[in-house]
Amino acid sequence: MRLTSYPRFLAILSSISIMVAGAQAETVIRLPGSDFAGGGKDKFGASQKGEQANYVYAHPTGACSVMQASFSLKVVPAEPMFLHLKACDDDAADKCRIRITLNGKSLWDGPSEFRNDAFEVRRIAIPAGALNAGENELVIANTEPKGELGMPPWFMVAACTVAPEKHTYGPDITKDFTVTLPAQKRPLPEPLPDGRKPGFAIRGTKGWGWLPQQYLAEIPTLAACKMNFLMNCYLSMCDVEHYPWGDKRCNRWWEPLPEAKKKAYERIVRECQKASIDFCFSMNPNLGAERILDYGKAEDVDVLWSHYRWMQELGVKWFNIALDDISEGIDASGQAKVANEFLKRLRAGDADAQLIVCPTWYWGDGTDARYRPYLETFARELDKDIFLFWTGDAVVINRITRKCAETYRGIVKHRLILWDNYPVNDNNPTMHLGPVFGRDPDLCEVIDGYMSNPLCKQNEINRIP
Predict the structure, then answer these.
(1) What 3-state DSSP class applies to 355?
(2) Could you tell me the CATH number of the domain that includes residue 112?
(3) Do 329 and 392 reside in the same domain of the chain?
(4) Which residues are 24's β-sheet partners?
(5) Is 55 exposed, middle or buried (0-12, 13-18, 19+ CB in 10 A)?
(6) Using CA atoms, how far apart are residues 347 and 317, in angstroms rounded to an integer?
(7) Residue 420: phi, psi to the nearest 5?
């Protein structure tokens, strides 16, 4: 969820006249990507790669495969017009096939020519007669015949402009940023009434690809705010010191961690213990790795377990096996088998050890027919003592409801911890500074814990009240 407190236009439905050389008026229509209806933004959030974007998945995803936006023109410009599209392709080898139509007339139909590592602006000619005086509709569709929601092939749009050929694309200066401070300064955290305990038994945050010094810097704030939980981001257990995330050499879960790195995290564990904060150790063996965990291979299970054994020997009591956002190894029975084995080994060393699994389908109410069999397998086969992470009504959303939590929990039949995807920016140049809101106040009656997903490099900003 992107809960920034600045106002912006939901759509720009009329032309903007910009004076150019020679005092000639240039007709320009600007549409931010997030103003497109449909697509995946309402499920996974609009903030992507530092832009407010929307994106379309493969044709079988239905409503998420198409997005559309409307705008109006008083008159059709006499000069040739172009669609200046700021977009990017997915990170798969093949270019995503897309179709772009304006008022039913084709502008593009075929593989995207956009780069896949960053947004870029490309110009597409608008045929004569395609624009209307009055209402116009721009539709962008993903025409790939195979694909799942949340997975490539996808096509992402940050913004588009309808303008003459020589138009120079620039930021939308109509956006503003405002912050309204409270009239009275209040203590943080606000004291609870006498005899009342915090709503969530588990309260804290995680890192996002953080380095050890970032975790250490966070511990005093967590303690002062009466938080009791800190989980390392599984990216932190990858070789982020030498490879960018996304490089398959980064996640080498089958190798021992360097001794210097182990010592750094041993210090983090000790500092958490001094502050009465439960450190939770997390790894994701199947995300972005050249070699994924074979659930039925004892050697693989033992290698992954060696990291968890190391942490348990330090006195750590909370552990997470993350299986989110993966495209390989989506096997609920296999995942449950490994998780059950890990809980058995953890409890053999410490009867109080706790394990959280982040399932591959970790959002929504669980009723989607595509994901429900997976979740029902977890409900049957996963040890009942294991917690599950859940991100709410969607992956990123501005409202998380008790009703959705109750429905999801009723299907998975396990205790839940909310993994709240705010104010996370996924290492994009975006800062989410607004307050947390839109969470039903009685969520704590349905789920056991709350964990915030933070900003990446700007970890100090996470502490803004």
Answers:
(1) strand
(2) 2.60.120.260
(3) yes
(4) 20
(5) buried
(6) 10
(7) -85, 115
Chain centroid to CA 220: 27
Residue 96 has pLDDT above 70, yes or no: yes
Among the listed residues 76, 68, 84, the one whose alpha carbon sits nearest the alpha carbon of residue 36: 68
**Cis bond leading into 189, ω under 30°?**
yes
Q: What sign has the CA pseudo-torsion 104, 16, 41, 245?
A: positive
Contact 34, 53 (CB under 8 A): yes
Q: Please, what is the average pLDDT of the chain?
A: 89
Longest dimension (CA), the chain: 80
Res 431: pLDDT:
80
* Domain annotation covers residue 197: no
Instruction: Check residue 240 and report its DSSP letter.
Output: T
Domain membership flag for residue 5:
no
Q: Rounded to whole angstroms, how far apart are CA atoms 335 and 351?
A: 22
Residue 108 phi, psi dihedral angles, 5° rounding: -155, 140
Amino acid type, 427: N
User: Token pair for residue 154?
Assistant: 């996808």
**Amino acid symbol at 130:** A
Same domain for 119 and 243: no
Establish if 73 belongs to a structural domain.
Answer: yes
Q: Is 265 helix (H, G, I), strand (E, B) or coil?
A: helix
Residue type, 340: N
**Residue whose tokens read 């020589």:** 166
C-alpha span between 378 and 15 (Å, rounded): 53
Domain span at residue 387 reads: 202-463
Q: What is the CATH number of the domain that holds 391?
A: 3.20.20.80
Task: Examine the domain organization and report whether 274 and 143 are in the same domain.
Answer: no
User: Quick one: pLDDT at residue 332?
Assistant: 97
* pLDDT recorded at residue 192: 82
User: What is the number of other CB atoms lying within 10 angstroms of the CB of residue 449?
Assistant: 20
pLDDT score, position 170: 66
3-state secondary structure of 415: coil
| Cβ 148 vs Cβ 61: under 8 Å | yes
Tally of domains within the chain: 2
Position 65, amino acid: S
In angstroms, the CA 379 to CA 377 distance is 5
Q: pLDDT tens for residues 403-459?
A: 999 999 999 999 999 999 999 988 887 888 888 889 999 999 999 999 999 999 888
Letter string b/e over residues 345-358, b meaning 16 or more CB atoms within 10 A of that residue's CB:
bbeeeeeebbbbbb
- Under the banding of pLDDT at 50, 70 and 90, the label for residue 216 is very high
pLDDT of residue 302: 98
| pLDDT score recorded for residue 4 | 32
